[in-house]
């Protein structure tokens, strides 16, 4: 087999692996196609971790957290435990960590845009395998895969005006589908892309900290403006009434829309070391969670708490919260470190006018999911977020330049803008 054929074969395998990483379909407790792909391809992606900042540290944190959750389960004496639950939760965490490795390797083979498109195709396949949500098929099932594919395609061109056009069009579709949060992420991402297009040239030296402050102010202003527009009825009567009801409940749109926050904080305060990845909740835990939710003026006696949140596991609708309760503080540190690295990388990229639209949108979605979405539904996109935004190790990049080896096009999110 010649070099061209080997390259083609490797690219096909990398695309298939990226697609597999997006599939949540399980063959057993926690045994997903994503996990199988990560295990099979371990020999090819393990060495790639050394080429990206913080990748090895993140995977080490995930491994420690998995052990921590197992130890807590082993020494639990007051609550029932489940071996199948322990396996399911542990494999879910390891699937996230392994997905990072697989997607980093795919990025080095088929580039940032190609990896995103392949992942999006896999996410669409996952909808077919697991079934879409008929309540709102676009909002709950199709939006994320389609957005990833579209923005992945625009990322391959390097043209920021295409990013801007795609973000605007997708925002209109999400707005028409009653998706307030996704609409806001797309619009804010469009504003950031537009801003960097018209930023003064300045220097090419990254200034991530200054950019973080500016992005924080911009995000707060955008949130306030969007909330005001919703309350004025600009996005429809249904969105206006739902938003006003959430604010009336707890005085805050976020707290009113995510009362699980009260349960998470109450349970973490009760047991800061976590409960364990295979531990089943008992009535005392449910009572503590309900007390925390009641402090947000939410009525927890509606079956949702017992049926969804604690019906066989600890689920507080938050990646950080879920990981803390199941894998202790190390699990929470893993989640915060992942999103922290991604935010820093995107801010660094924006500061030199080089952030792709998909990276900006993913970091906004990832920040929301880290605190306000379940681990199971968010783990795949969080793996993609880190893989697409991870910063290459400068020492290795300089060594390749010195040896005359050029980096693969689109291998880094820090690409020059053509917009």
Descriptive labels:
18 helices; globular; 419 residues; 2 strands; mainly alpha
What's the average pLDDT? 85
Order of strands across the main sheet: 1-2
Write the H/E string, N to C.
Answer: HEEHHHHHHHHHHHHHHHHH
Strand content: under 5%
* Main β sheet profile: 2 strands, antiparallel
Low-confidence stretches: 397-419
Radius of gyration: 21 Å
Please tell me what the overall shape is. globular
* Helix amount: over 70%
How many angstroms does the end-to-end distance come to? 40 Å
- How many runs of DSSP E, i.e. beta strands? 2
Per DSSP, the total helix count is 18
Structural class category: mainly alpha
Give a short overview.
This protein has 419 residues and is mainly α. It contains 18 helices and two strands.
Question: What would you say this structure looks like, in words?
Answer:
The protein has 419 residues and is mostly helical. The chain is 72% helix and 1% strand. It has a two-stranded antiparallel sheet. Strand 1 and strand 2 form a beta hairpin. Helix 4 runs antiparallel to helix 15. The longest helix is centred in the first third of the chain and has 48 residues. It is globular.
């Amino acid at each position: 087999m010649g070099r061209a054929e080997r390259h083609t074969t490797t690219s096909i395998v990398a695309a298939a692996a990226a697609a597999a990483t997006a599939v949540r379909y399980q063959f057993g407790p926690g045994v997903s196609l994503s996990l199988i792909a990560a295990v099979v391809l371990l020999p090819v992606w393990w060495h790639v971790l050394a080429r990206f900042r913080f990748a090895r540290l993140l995977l080490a944190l995930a491994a420690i957290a998995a052990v921590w959750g197992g130890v807590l389960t082993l020494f639990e004496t007051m609550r029932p435990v489940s071996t199948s639950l322990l396996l399911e939760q542990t494999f879910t965490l390891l699937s996230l960590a392994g997905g990072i490795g697989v997607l980093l390797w795919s990025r080095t083979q088929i580039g940032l845009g190609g990896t995103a498109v392949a992942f999006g195709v896999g996410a669409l396949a996952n909808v077919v395998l697991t079934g879409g949500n008929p309540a709102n098929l676009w909002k709950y099932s199709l939006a994320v895969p389609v957005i990833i594919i579209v923005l992945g395609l625009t990322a391959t061109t390097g043209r920021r005006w295409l990013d801007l056009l795609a973000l605007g069009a997708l925002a209109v579709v999400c707005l028409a589908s009653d998706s307030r949060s996704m609409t806001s992420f797309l619009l804010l991402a469009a504003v950031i892309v537009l801003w960097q297009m018209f930023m003064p040239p300045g220097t090419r030296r990254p200034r991530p900290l200054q950019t973080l402050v500016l992005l924080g102010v911009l995000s707060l202003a955008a949130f306030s403006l969007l909330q005001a527009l919703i309350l004025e009825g600009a996005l429809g009567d249904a969105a206006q009434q739902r938003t006003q009801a959430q604010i009336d409940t707890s005085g805050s749109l976020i707290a009113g829309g995510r009362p699980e926050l009260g349960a998470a904080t109450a349970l973490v305060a009760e047991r800061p070391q976590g409960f364990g990845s295979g531990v089943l909740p008992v009535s005392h835990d449910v009572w503590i969670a309900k007390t925390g939710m009641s402090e947000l003026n939410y009525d927890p006696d509606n079956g949702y708490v017992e049926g969804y949140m604690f019906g066989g596991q600890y689920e507080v609708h938050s990646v950080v919260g879920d990981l803390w309760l199941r894998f202790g503080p190390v699990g929470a540190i893993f989640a915060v470190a992942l999103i922290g690295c991604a935010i820093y990388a995107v801010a660094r990229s924006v500061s030199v006018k080089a952030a792709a639209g998909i990276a900006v949108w993913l970091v906004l979605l990832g920040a929301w999911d880290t605190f306000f979405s379940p681990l199971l539904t968010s783990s795949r996109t969080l793996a993609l977020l880190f893989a697409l935004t991870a910063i290459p190790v400068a020492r290795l990049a300089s060594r390749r330049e010195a040896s005359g080896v050029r980096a693969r096009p689109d291998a880094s999110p820090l690409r020059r803008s053509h917009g």
